[in-house]
Every structure is written in structure tokens, then in C-alpha cells.
Design brief:
heterodimer, A: 466 residues, mainly alpha, 2 domains, two-stranded antiparallel ribbon, 69% helix, B: 292 residues, alpha/beta, Rossmann fold, 4-stranded antiparallel sheet, 44% helix, globular
């Protein structure tokens, strides 16, 4: 209430300062009233188990002063600043012709892709062989795996509007397909990669059939159950999957069979090029593999969006009944969305197996599905670019929060920043969703246009109801 | 010319025979039979709750009728039993398109995209069920250009060309109605079913709608079946009117015949209880006179 009046009032100098002082005074009064009993007084038990009352006026004063200063700054500084920002924005939109987007902005995806291609050599130069390992593996590969997973899920959730809470099941199918077929039959990564995708797509269709008639919450619950079923099968079918022990010693991927990354192999990559032995080559190779997989995912997703099937997915998200009245077979449309989304999950899973060399059911818990879904929602459902940014922020952010040991200098040695990682992370997500409720990129780019391509505001698009 | 008119008149596109629809204990449609003739505009009217939308839902495959036969005859003579086809096949195979009482557009897609989604089946075939299109075969590019030409044609007819790149949800109510009709026409139907197309339109928008409907009939020869409450629209554009009350047909004929039918007047204006006999007498007289 007070907040609103602060924004709507004209930010004039003298009146503003007076009002800010007055509101700061009231804020202090309210916080004093609210906190005097909780903060100002404290009860302790002494040695005789008697309650003694401690008065903490200084401590209370800190709270009150913080509230007053906060309120004062909010009105005197933040209010006018926000009003000015709004006015500037209004002036911009009122302007006859918006400035055409710059060269970098127009070719953002090419610039981004180029930067990623250059990422390993730059990091290698900056941090040396061992130092770059962390950046290429923990940041680069990890983020790109999630980008790919989120782009795959985006087809199901963002485009077709089918809320899938068990997406990690397809990731698991891909990873175990690679792990089992490679350790039991000795097939190579490049044979198993497409096979893992096909198997996952097959499971996507298997999941798709029973949930065709379900919508919204019901669909979400059944997909969630499906994810858990796959995980429990992996845990309990010990004869094949070795249960919770997982499958270890999974073969590494090779450069199309020409160079291997096995230390003992005669065609070892480092030996072939007379380079010092290091595991970083394998990681850099994997980085380029996942980058290529992401590029394929992006290309296929973008092409599909401009194809009749992609438009049918989006139409299905907007209104299923209208789709049926236009002669669109909603059954096959939904199944293809599930299958193609699952296929990309399977590719990512096979890659994950090759990268880790070890898979166990622990990697495929519900939390993973939730994280992937959060990336899609945070990025803006349907937007490839927004999702990539969200994946970088979410996965890179959680990795970055591991490196917060400098906070010990601020809060003392007893402070362990790792424990606050998820708290900070959750807070950041809440803040983002409050500021940008439709995700980083809330607008939708139309797949076809007659005169000019205009982004569609998120207020028109629907989230889908299953 | 007269001969042609006669053949046109005899050519029935949709034959509804003994249609009944029961929801639990409620008999929504009771033994309804009527014909929709090719190239005509047939209006289905009746008081609220008479079962008009239920008839529509039976014809367009959203309900499966309890009893009855719905025979759709296409121009090339092929026949379809609509009560046996399920939802999307009614449009794809029998070429019956429909609009909805509460407009159902793809609000987050642009106006043009709405019209392209309607051409899904044609584009799907042209793109080799996505595979060939994904590989960039020229057949898909050509089909896609044709689809945009067709969309342009209907945008022009619906007076929406300037709004082609705006989201459908951003259009005014009248424009949304016209877009929904244009979208249904993009599926290439032989019979177009419109559920209250003039509901909520102002007089100017109503006129635009009449123009669009007449253009559809004149230029594509599509037959129209419409539910309408707005009598000015019904009387002005329809060739044939079917009146329903409590799921039963009470009148069937040209607009003028229906307008003067005492049963229709009684159904629409309502009569007091003690006047019922009077009205019934009148009706009996009227039918006797007609018989004589």
C-alpha cells in the first residue's frame, strides 16, 4: 500500500524527502512494536533453573534502524529510480521507430556457438592442462548436458504443453543402454549413441500410450510415477543392472575409432600427437561431442517448429479440441512429441555414460527431473535461447556456489558456504520468477510470417493442460 | 438454369435420419430427421436448450449419437457415415469443418499460423510426414508456399490481411469470429458447421460476417449449416431453416414458411398455460387448412 503510493507520487525533491522521513519513522515504529518482545527481551534459565529476563536494547535498535534506513532508501532513492526507469521505457516504446537490433543481437546464436567452440582452447591457454579441467568438465560439459536435456524436455513441455515430471527416465534409459550394450557386447559409442536415442524414443511412446487421455495434474503424476518405475527397476533388477552398485568401467568414447583415450591403447590420442599425458584431452573431446549434440538438438528443434508437426504441437498446447476439429490426429501428435523429446534425453544419457564411465540409479532421481523442468520454466517455455541461459545459470550457478569459500572471511571460519548453496539457489529462483514470471524469454517467435516477424507476448500463449 | 437449380435442390449433402441423443435420463435429441442440401445455407434455430449444439456435436464427431444415421455425401459421390467416424477423421476424411460457440483459436499463435495449422494434413503429406521436410526436400517448400497462398486468400476474404502477424488472442471479438471461420475453411471442407457465428457481434460486424458467409458459398460452393439466435442473420442469409424445440423438429422450410409457422411462434414467444389449448386449436386449424 505504502509502496504503491511511493511509486505513483511525483518524485519532487522536498516533499519526497519529508515523506521518506515520515514513512521511515512509521517503519521504525512498526518494527519496534513487532520486535520489542521477540528481540528486545530474552529469557534464559540460570543455574537454579530460574527464568531470568535479559534486555537487549542495543540489538533491538539495530533491527529498527535497519528497517528505518531501508524504508527511507526505498522511498527516497529506489522509488524515483524505478519511476525514471519506467518513464524511460515508456518513452522508448512511444518512439516512432525502435532501433533495429544490433549485429550481435541478431546473430546471437552464431556468436554463442562460436564462443563455445573457442571455450576449451581459451581456457587451456589461461589455466594450463590441469587447471582447465574444472572449467571444461564441471562447467562446460555439465551445463551442456543440461542444455540438451532441457531442449529435449522443451519439446514435450514447452511446445506440446504436456507436463512431464519423469523426463529423467529417458535419460536413464539412454545411459543404461550405453552402459549395458557397451560392457556386454563391446559396441562402440558411435553405434550406441543413435541406438540409445531410438530405445529412449521407444520408451517415450510406451509412456505416451497410457497417458494420452490424461491432462494437467493427472498427466504430471503418471509421468512422475513412470520416472520412479524406471529407477526402481534399475535398483532391483540386480542380475542385469547390478542394482545400487551401478555399472562401472564403461568404455570411453573414441574419436570415431581413429584415436582412443584409453591410456593403454596403442592409438592413444596423446601418444599419437606426442602430447603430455593428461585426462584433459578426453574432456575437451567430450566437450565438442556434447556441443555437436546440442547443435543437432537445436537445429532439429528449430526446424521442427517450422514444420507442420511443430505447429501442431504448439496448437495442441493452445487448444486440443480445436486441433481435433481441424482434422489433426492428436494421438500421433502427442506420441511424436513424447518420442522426440525422449530421444534427445536418450542421446544425453548415452553421452553421460561415456563421460562418467559409471552409471547408477542415484543419478536418475526425481530431483533431476525437477531441475530439468525448472530450467525449461526458468528459461521461458518454448524459447531455445532462454533455456540455454537458464541452464547456464542454474547448473553453472550451483557449481559456482561451491567456490564461495571467500565468504568465510566475512562470516568467520565456522561458516560453511556449501551448506547454504541450495538456500541461495532457491532464493535466486524465487526472485527470478517474481521479476520474470514467464521465464527469461517470455515471448514466442512465430514460425511463419507474412509481412514482419513480431515476437508474441507471453500473455497470449498458454502453458498447456496436458 | 432451372434444371441445374433443381438438381442442386435435390442433391443432399448431409442426411440426418432418426437422430437421437440421450445423456443419462435426458433425451437431448428425439428422433430428428432433416436434410442439408448442397450449396445452400441451412440454419438450425430454436430456443435455448433445444439441443442445437448437441446436433452439431453429433455431426462433427464430438458426441457419438445414441441412435440414428448421419450420411455425408461428397461432390464426387463418396459417402461417409459420420456417426461411425471418430473426432479428427470427420474433418480429414468426410470434409466437415466446424467453429465453436465460445471461440477456440490458438491465441498464442499468429493469425497466419492459425491458418497454417488448419492445413496440417496437406502439409504433413507434402513433408513426407516430417522426414523429407526435415531433410529439405523441395516438395515441402512448394507445399508450404501454397499453404501460405491459401492462407492469404482467406485472410483477404476475412479482412484480416493487416493483422496476419499478430497473435490471434489480440484480435477483436468480431475479427476472432471471422478468423475461426477462415481457419475452418483452410481445411478445405465441403460442409461448414458454424455454431452461433453472430453471437456477441455488433451490427457492423454482423454485416461483415454475412458478407464472408455469402462469399464462402458463392466462391467455394461449400454448404453451410449454422446455429443462430440472431434472426436478422438467419432470415437474411439462410435458404432453409430447421426449428428445434426440446430436441424435436417443429418446423422445416424456407425462412418465410418458418416465420409464419404458428408452432414456431408459440415456441419462441411462449404462451400462458390457459392459452395452450387455444394455440393448439389454431395449430390444428392451420394444419387442417393446409391439408385441405
Amino acid at each position: 500500500m505504502a509502496m504503491q503510493s511511493a511509486n505513483s507520487a511525483p518524485p519532487s525533491g522536498e516533499g519526497l524527502l519529508g515523506r521518506a522521513l515520515r514513512e521511515a519513522f512509521f517503519a521504525g515504529l512498526i518494527s519496534f512494536g513487532m520486535l520489542v518482545l521477540y528481540v528486545g527481551l530474552r529469557t534464559d534459565q540460570d543455574i537454579n533453573n530460574k527464568l531470568i529476563l535479559t534486555q537487549r536494547w542495543g540489538f533491538l535498535a539495530i533491527f529498527v534502524v535497519v528497517a528505518m534506513v531501508g524504508r527511507f532508501l526505498m522511498i527516497a532513492v529506489v522509488g524515483p529510480w524505478r519511476a525514471a526507469g519506467k518513464a524511460a521505457k515508456a518513452a522508448r516504446t512511444a518512439g516512432a521507430e525502435a532501433a533495429p537490433p544490433g549485429l550481435i543481437r541478431r546473430n546471437l546464436h552464431i556468436v554463442g556457438f562460436g564462443a563455445l567452440v573457442l571455450f576449451p582452447p581459451v581456457v587451456l591457454m589461461l589455466f594450463g592442462l590441469q587447471g582447465s579441467l574444472k572449467f571444461v568438465d564441471n562447467f562446460g560439459i555439465q551445463i551442456l548436458i543440461y542444455v540438451m536435456l532441457a531442449w529435449g524436455l522443451n519439446i514435450v513441455v514447452g511446445l506440446a504443453g504436456l507436463l512431464d515430471l519423469g523426463y529423467v527416465a529417458f535419460y536413464a534409459v539412454g545411459a543404461y543402454s550405453y552402459a549395458l550394450l557397451s560392457s556386454n557386447f563391446g559396441l562402440s559409442f558411435w553405434v550406441l549413441l543413435p541406438l540409445a536415442g531410438i530405445l529412449s524414443a521407444f520408451w517415450g511412446v510406451i509412456l505416451g500410450f497410457p497417458v494420452l487421455r490424461l491432462r494437467g495434474d493427472y498427466l504430471a503424476i503418471v509421468t512422475l510415477a513412470f520416472g520412479e518405475i524406471i529407477r526402481l527397476v534399475l535398483v532391483n533388477w540386480t542380475a542385469v543392472t547390478k542394482g545400487t552398485f551401478g555399472i562401472s568401467g564403461i568404455a570411453k568414447a573414441s574419436v570415431f575409432g581413429i584415436w582412443s583415450f584409453d591410456v593403454s591403447a596403442s592409438n592413444n590420442f596423446a601418444k599419437a600427437f606426442d602430447l603430455p599425458m593428461s585426462s584433459v584431452y578426453y574432456k575437451i573431446f567430450l566437450f565438442y561431442v556434447i556441443l555437436a549434440l546440442c547443435a543437432v538438438t537445436a537445429y532439429v528443434s528449430m526446424r521442427l517448429r517450422a514444420m507442420p508437426i511443430g505447429r501442431a504441437w504448439e496448437a495442441l498446447r493452445e487448444d486440443e479440441i480445436a486441433c481435433r476439429s481441424l482434422g489433426i490426429n492428436t494421438v500421433t501428435t502427442k506420441l511424436t512429441a513424447f518420442a522426440i523429446g525422449a530421444m534427445f534425453g536418450g542421446f544425453a544419457g548415452a553421452f553421460f555414460g561415456a563421460r562418467q564411465g559409471f552409471v547408477s540409479p542415484e543419478s536418475f532421481v526425481f530431483l533431476e527431473s525437477a531441475v530439468i523442468l525448472a530450467i525449461v520454466v526458468l528459461g521461458g517455455m518454448g524459447s531455445m535461447f532462454g533455456i540455454a541461459v537458464a541452464a547456464a545459470a542454474m547448473i553453472g550457478g550451483t557449481e559456482l556456489l561451491r567456490e564461495m569459500s571467500f565468504l568465510k572471511a566475512v562470516f568467520g571460519d565456522a561458516f560453511t558456504p556449501e551448506l547454504y548453496r541450495m538456500l541461495i539457489f532457491g532464493l535466486a529462483m524465487v526472485v527470478v520468477m517474481v521479476l520474470k514470471p514467464r521465464g527469461f524469454v517470455g515471448t514466442r517467435q512465430p514460425s511463419a510470417f507474412l509481412h514482419e516477424r513480431k515476437a508474441i507476448s507471453g500473455s497470449f500463449t498458454k502453458e498447456g493442460h496436458g | 438454369m432451372v434444371g441445374q437449380d433443381k438438381t442442386m435442390g435435390n442433391d443432399v449433402i448431409l442426411k440426418v435420419e432418426h437422430l437421437s441423443m440421450r445423456f443419462g435420463g435426458l433425451l437431448a435429441i428425439n428422433d430428428l430427421s432433416f436434410d442439408v442440401r448442397r450449396g445452400e445455407i441451412t440454419a438450425l434455430i430454436g430456443p435455448n436448450g433445444a439441443g442445437k449444439t448437441t446436433v452439431f456435436n453429433c455431426v462433427t464427431g464430438f458426441y457419438r449419437p445414441t441412435m440414428g444415421m448421419l450420411t455425408m455425401t461428397q461432390r464426387d459421390g463418396s459417402q461417409f457415415r459420420l456417426e461411425r467416424l471418430n473426432d479428427f477423421r470427420i474433418n480429414r476424411q468426410a470434409k466437415v469443418a466446424r467453429t465453436f460457440q465460445n471461440i477456440r483459436l490458438f491465441t498464442g499463435l499468429t493469425v497466419l499460423e492459425n491458418l497454417l495449422v488448419a492445413q496440417h494434413n496437406m502439409l504433413m503429406r507434402a513433408s513426407g510426414y516430417t522426414v523429407l521436410g526435415l531433410l529439405g526436400f523441395p516438395a515441402y517448400r512448394q507445399a508450404s508456399a501454397e499453404a501460405i497462398e491459401k492462407a492469404k486468400y482467406w485472410l483477404d476474404k476475412a479482412a484480416l490481411t493487416d493483422r496476419a502477424d499478430d497473435p490471434a488472442g489480440d484480435l477483436s471479438y468480431g475479427a476472432q469470429r471471422r478468423l475461426e471461420i477462415a481457419r475452418a475453411m483452410c481445411t478445405g471442407p465441403e460442409l461448414l458447421c458454424l455454431d452461433e457465428p453472430a453471437a456477441g457481434l455488433n451490427p457492423r460486424e454482423s454485416l461483415e460476417l454475412n458478407t464472408l458467409l455469402r462469399a464462402i458459398r458463392a466462391e467455394t460452393g461449400t454448404s453451410l449449416l449454422l446455429i443462430e439466435h440472431d434472426m436478422s442473420v438467419v432470415m437474411e442469409i439462410s435458404d432453409h431453416v430447421v426449428v428445434l424445440e426440446y430436441g424435436t423438429k417443429i418446423s422445416d422450410g424456407t425462412p418465410d414458411e418458418v416465420k409464419n409457422d404458428p408452432k414456431v411462434i408459440a415456441a419462441y414467444l411462449g404462451v400462458e398455460d390457459d392459452e395452450v389449448e387455444e394455440v393448439l386449436d389454431e395449430i390444428i386449424h392451420a394444419t387442417e387448412e393446409a391439408g385441405a
